[in-house]
Amino acid sequence: MIRYLKIYKECIKVDFATASTYRLNFFLNCIIMLLGDIFFPLITVLIYGSGAGFEGWTVYEVLLIQSVFTMSTAIADMTFHGIMWATMDLVRNGGMEMVLILPVDTMFILMARTFSFEGIGLFAGGAAIFTIAILNIPAPSVWEWLQFLAFFISGLFVMMGIGLIMAAISFKWVGNSRIPEIFDCIRSFGKYPQSVFPKAILVFTSFLIPVAMIAYCPAAALLGRGNMTMFLMILPCVIFLLFGIFLYKYMVRLYQGVGG
Amino acid sequence: MDNNAKDIITVKGLTKKYITYKRGSGFKESVKALFVREKVPVIAVNDISFSVRDGDIIGLLGPNGAGKSTTIKMLTGTLYPTCGTIEVMGYNPTKNRKNYVRQIGAVFGQRSQLIWDIPPLDSFRMNKAIYSISDEEFEERVSFMAKLFMVEDLIKRPTRVLSLGERMKCEFIMAMLHNPKVVFLDEPTIGLDVIAKHNIRDFIRRMNGMGTTFILTTHDLEDVEQLARKVIIINKGVKVFDDTIENLKKVLGAKKIVQLTLLKEVGTLDIPGASILERESPLKMTVSVDLERMPINEFMAKLSEQCAFSDISVKEMPMDTIITHIYQSKGIEQPDK
Description:
The complex is a heterodimer. Chain A is mainly alpha-helical. Chain A has one domain (about 1-255). Chain A contains 13 helices and no strands. The radius of gyration of chain A is 19 Å and the shape is globular. Chain B folds into 2 domains: about 5-250, P-loop containing nucleotide triphosphate hydrolases (Rossmann fold, 3-Layer(aba) Sandwich), CATH 3.40.50; about 255-315, Alpha-Beta Plaits, CATH 3.30.70. In chain B, strand 11 and strand 12 form a beta hairpin. The relative contact order of chain B is 0.13. The model of chain B has no long low-confidence stretch (mean pLDDT about 85). Chains A and B meet through helix 1 and helix 5 of A and helix 2, helix 3, strand 5 and helix 4 of B.
């Protein structure tokens, strides 16, 4: 465990060294990521400003969901989403051998090596909207904050599970640039209050691919809307992550390599 | 190397098969391939068996696409064999991968372990953490190998500003930081100039002298001649030769290929042991020289008596000619020839 922490520390240092080498690129990427993902909550403000909105949800409640989604995306981008891009690239150009000859878990080293500080801008943006939203809703209790934390971590499990499944698919579906788009499409269901979806989609977003846990459930907990179903949803989140880990490890075994 | 050394690598009946898809060229074929693709089974490595003794240097030779890299990838545990067994230092590379790869090193000539934007020294630190190398050992190994390669200053510059030869030296340091017992080298001198090749070969010899076993794949016969004691030649996935370098030379007859650019056209060459293999143009020809009958210095002296030339290069025998010689020496028909 200590060895893995040391490796992770080295990877963070490498990313910092790379970011400081290409400073302009780093700052631009931070800003572009922030603008790209912050645009969505701004649309919510405009929709509510025009008198429309999601029935039963105030603008600050919706902003709370979307800011949690933004923070979760930022953490995922910084810590484990890189595995999807890295696997796609390594499988396509045959560089996976260089990872497989290392005496560490392949999944771990790819996540560690793709650690990126660039999501820090996005996280800061999400945190800013979260603060605004939280100041405009009734103050949550300690119990609600604890629920929020449990659901938020479970949401990260879902994000990691989706990322690993997409990365695993790239072992067979070599060089398919649409994989990240499928990934975005699936997780985007987590951006909205789940009450706007029909029942069939709710089953999908709650238990099959529990994307509701990414933002809706943690925000609902802070709004005092947490319930037993949400606690039950933690189990499919853990199963989803375990399935992602299993599938990725299984697909690594099927790696064929490319010509020399 | 100790003649009584034990086998450190044993390979039996190693086979790798995979499926690829055939797709024709042109627009019509591209459209057809959108809906139907013909599966083509490929046998990259077919029933190969061999052994390597502790402290040896083995050359795995073969033309492009022979199955050398696939074999070495299976030996490193990065590819799973379809069938057959591999045992390296008592490990099965496909089982307990993490423990196994801790004992080995690998340099793939066309891939890099170095991180592009940071100095090699920082990449070495990454491997220090991965292999849990102590601070003292790390400092000692880096300074020893950097001195051996004369790259003490280079390892502090960003990798992207280094030349291919300099990067390759750093790749070797990276691969050998954890003092592996066995090192696999896949085309380690590919694309390097004469001096860089010499440095790399010298380094391999020095490390071998300290007990490291090397298995190198190459299609450069010079690598094998200068380094290996034993040669395994693979052609179309099948082992065609497995013996000492001396016995390979006996099969090949110690021949060199000389490429000449003449100043004036010449009809024939009256030099014992020399024969014209090919005339590319009236002023360009390729000559085969049997070194047992005509040492290269005597050949040069006689050649300058008989003709005037503006350029000359002495090369090793091409790999396809070597393979043909081996099949001929065994009296068997060469596949697809």
